[in-house]
Amino acid sequence: VQVMESGGGLVQAGGSLRLSCTVSGLNFENSHLSWFRQSPGKEREGVACIDRRGSSTHYADSVKGRFTISRDNAKNTLYLQMDDLKPEDTAMYYCAAQENYYWGKGTLVTISS
Description:
Layout: E1 2-6, E2 9-12, E3 17-24, E4 33-38, E5 45-50, E6 57-59, E7 67-72, E8 77-82, E9 91-97, E10 102-103, E11 107-112
Parallel strand pairs: 2-11
Antiparallel strand pairs: 1-3, 3-8, 4-5, 4-9, 5-6, 7-8, 9-10, 9-11
């Protein structure tokens, strides 16, 4: 199983980024998927998750109303649209598949003030 995140980068506060996560080697459409993040010196935190069909989503309070998780089962891809970004969103973002059993190596998001 391979999990690969992409789309991170450096943006100014108030800007947007869209992260992608491609998953191969498992039955993607039957996999619960999540985004996590970890900042230096802080514990990893769950950002958002989505059920197999994409009909149910959950978000951390810190990102509600600004981030949107979605999936395209035909492309085996998970997305995280991040809008109105804040400096405190700076972190390494990770994708997790199959109830958090498989993880990617992360993509770095840096928000400048």
